[in-house]
Design goal:
The structure holds 2 protein chains of 2 kinds. Chain A has 2 domains: 8-42 and 179-370, no CATH class; 49-155, 3-Layer(aba) Sandwich (abc type-2 transporter like fold). Chain A has 14 helices and 5 strands. Chain A has helices at residues 3-19, 21-41, 60-71, 84-92, 106-113, 127-144, 180-211, 213-218, 224-252, 262-286, 290-308, 320-326, 330-344, 352-370; strands at 49-55, 75-80, 98-102, 116-123, 148-155. Chain B has 2 domains: 11-225, P-loop containing nucleotide triphosphate hydrolases (Rossmann fold, 3-Layer(aba) Sandwich), CATH 3.40.50; 231-299, Alpha-Beta Plaits, CATH 3.30.70. In chain B, helix 3 packs across helix 4, helix 3 packs parallel to helix 5 (144-155) and helix 4 runs antiparallel to helix 5 (144-155). The radius of gyration of chain B is 23 Å and the shape is elongated. Classes of the chains: A alpha/beta, B alpha/beta. The interface between A and B is medium-sized, with 28 and 32 residues.
């Protein structure tokens, strides 16, 4: 391997990127667009959920509880109902997502046995929202009195959920505000790096085949590994720039905390870039048309990264088979690392397993990419 | 890069074969090329010229036979072969989105021309290609002749002892073609061995040796002069007359007429002078209602010889 040849290819590639509008857009504009779209677009938080209340007691106690609901930022009381028929109608017509019903013996039971139940009727046709809403309701009631319990009853076709006598004290770590943006953004960084990296490099070999320059290049004494390194170096630099951009944007624009080590971030990002650039290069070497190569690149990076990396959809809630599949998705390890670095403040030593997994991936992909294209026409 | 060349021919080809599936593109070709000479591969499109050159450059794996370039087996050690050659592919293949200088620097780097001598080599290439003042133009904006000379300049930056040029003059104007051949000659005078393919028969005159290739077979390998003196087995006559089609149908198959073909606005005939004279021919055409403007013996051109040889070598005839 000769540095002079790698250098010649890297310089040539850099000039070509600089003169190619499409590459520039992918390299510089796409990370920005993705950050904005996904940072603002994907929001799993529930705030000011419309709520109807049915207060069968109308006592000081029950009113105090309802004030707690009104004061919470999770709920907005939009109507006070007079009977269960109205409650059903309110849920059916989508006026509200949950109904809070306070029993007629609420105060009495409180003073008699020191515990009472509040009923929550939730529209569980969107069971994710219903679950979260019930959780929030629980914490509001919990705040009101430690010994109150919430009986949550599923509504709208889903099995009834009954939570009785729960007395839980919640302590949320790492994402104290339960802000879903903090949870999403580190994953978005992985998504951007995967997409940009693979998309840019997927064009690099196929472009030479399409333009006929490859035939001349392979007639020279250049080694396949020199071509790979020379071509990937500029893209690696772009990828690192994009990583810095994503970090700055996440921290200063979206106010996502970054608590981990910067060294660990750049080390793992390098590993991840080696994998995605190598994958793009492999695709490019296998598919000799630019359009075909870029489509495959999007398919093999965007899809698994957005669905199976755990960036938005938690892996431990997937069926076991799918969970097993995610171990093959290299972005999964990077997402794990990013979340740990951003939110937990981890250092490299805490992340041995995902870092090792990425290291193995990087080595395999670099090895394959180094001999991906043959210096032959047949 | 220019090492002391080992003795022996620059290129040795023995029984070389290339098959693509059922199609045999190169069919048992054997020849030698002496150092410092220009060998021209002549033949129609699809004859196997490019395939042969690509095998010699190590770009295609031979299906059979052997080939040695500078004494190195192209099938076993294509990488070492590539150190010793320069190549211009059929399709123009420099980087259109790079400037003249950027292309030259790139290939200088790829061929590992030492940095101390690269500027001088680049200056030489720019002068040779007549690109002074256009060093910073994008290559895609250059006219064909310039592109072609720049491609040659890039191919010789590392001073290879052997140069393969695959149809370098196709699609280039006649003036640029002539200028290009002058460059090839001066390289040859410096001792470079040059293998060049073309389908322009008139370019054969510029070569030391001509390899006539048709349908993957090597028809002949000789100098243009010997090739033209080649006994076609009769006299070659050219007849300029009114209705060429009618003339051919009148004369074809007559005793003494060995071969007949339309050639531009004339009919070229190969005749046995013992059996038929120009006067007989003129008489027969006039009697058949075809007025003859001119009739006479001509020196066979490479084209005539090619057509004749193709006729001898394939039962179907024609140049395919």
């Amino acid at each position: 391997m000769r540095w002079g040849r790698i250098r010649a290819i890297a310089i040539k590639e850099t000039i070509q990127i600089r003169r190619d509008t499409r590459s520039l857009i992918i390299a510089l504009f796409m990370p920005f667009m993705q950050m904005i779209l996904l940072g603002y677009g994907v929001n799993l938080d529930i705030k000011h959920l419309p709520v109807c209340v049915y207060d069968r007691e109308g006592s000081q106690n029950s009113q105090a509880l309802l004030k707690h609901f009104q004061a919470s930022e999770y709920f907005s009381i939009i109507a006070v109902l007079k009977d269960y028929r109205e409650a059903k109608a309110a849920l059916d017509s989508d006026r509200c997502r949950i109904v809070i019903a306070i029993p007629h013996d609420f105060s009495q039971k409180l003073s008699d046995s020191g515990g009472s139940t509040v009923q929550v009727l939730a529209d569980a046709s969107d069971d994710n929202t219903a679950n979260i809403a019930i959780g929030y309701a629980q914490s509001v009631v919990g705040e009101f009195a430690g010994n109150l319990a919430v009986a949550a009853q599923g509504f709208g076709g889903s099995p009834a959920r009954l939570t009785q006598g729960v007395d839980l004290e919640e302590r949320v770590w790492y994402n104290e505000d339960l802000d879903s943006r903090n949870y999403i953004i580190p994953g978005v960084v992985a998504l951007i790096m995967a997409l940009v990296g693979a998309l840019l490099t997927s064009l690099t070999i196929s472009r030479e085949w399409e333009r006929g320059t490859m035939e001349l290049l392979i007639s020279t004494p250049v080694q396949p590994s020199e071509v790979m390194l020379g071509k990937l170096l500029p893209y690696f630099a772009i990828g690192m720039l994009d990583a810095v951009f994503c970090l700055v944007f996440s921290v200063f624009w979206f106010h996502v905390p970054f608590r981990g080590s910067l060294f660990a971030l750049f080390f793992t990002t390098s590993l991840f870039l080696v994998v995605v650039l190598g994958v793009g290069f492999l695709i490019s070497a296998a598919i000799k048309s630019q359009v075909g190569a870029s489509q495959i690149a999007v398919l093999v990076t965007l899809l698994p990264t957005s669905l199976l990396s755990g960036y938005a959809f938690p892996i431990d809630q997937m069926p076991p088979l799918v969970q097993w599949v995610t171990t093959l998705v290299f972005a999964r390890y990077y997402v794990t690392i990013l979340k740990a670095l951003f939110l937990k403040g981890s250092v490299l030593e805490d992340l041995i397993r995902p870092v090792l997994a990425m290291g193995i991936y990087a080595m395999v992909v670099a090895f394959l990419a180094g001999r991906a294209f043959k210096k032959r026409l047949d | 890069m220019t090492e002391v060349a080992p003795k022996g021919p620059a290129i040795v080809v023995e029984d070389l074969v290339k098959r693509f599936g059922d199609f045999t593109a190169v069919d048992h070709i054997s020849f030698h090329v002496e150092r410092g000479t220009i060998i021209g591969f002549l033949g129609p499109n699809g004859a196997g010229k490019s395939t042969t050159i690509r095998m010699l450059c190590g770009l295609l794996r031979p299906s059979g036979g052997r080939a040695f370039v500078s004494g190195i087996d192209v099938a076993k050690d294509p990488e070492t072969v590539r150190e010793h050659i320069g190549y211009m592919s059929q399709k123009f293949s420099l980087y259109g989105d790079l400037t003249v200088m950027e292309n030259l620097r790139f290939f200088g780097g790829i061929y590992r021309v030492p940095r101390t001598i690269l500027p001088e080599r680049i200056r030489f290439a720019v002068t040779m290609a007549g690109l002074e003042g256009r060093e910073d133009s994008l290559v895609s904006t250059l006219a064909g002749g310039w592109k072609q000379r720049l491609a040659l300049g890039c191919a010789i930056l590392h001073r290879p002892p052997i140069l393969f040029l695959d149809e370098p003059t196709s699609g280039v104007d006649p003036e640029s073609r002539r200028r290009f051949w002058d460059l090839i000659h001066s390289l040859s005078e410096d001792g470079v061995t040059i293998v060049v393919s073309t389908h322009y028969m008139d370019e054969a005159e510029y070569c030391n040796t001509i390899a006539l290739i048709n349908r993957g077979r090597l028809l002949t390998l000789e100098s243009p002069t010997t090739l033209k003196k080649r006994n076609l087995g009769g006299d070659l006559l050219s007849i300029e007359c009114g209705d060429i089609g009618k003339a051919i149908s009148l004369l074809e198959g007559q005793p003494g007429i060995l071969d007949i073909a339309a050639f531009g606005n004339a009919v070229h005939l190969l005749v046995d002078p013992e059996k038929i004279s120009p006067g007989d021919l003129e008489g027969r055409l006039t009697a058949g209602g075809v007025p003859v403007n001119r009739i006479g013996r001509i020196e066979p051109s490479i084209d005539d010889i090619f057509v004749r040889m193709v006729g001898e070598n394939s039962p179907q005839g024609g140049a395919g």
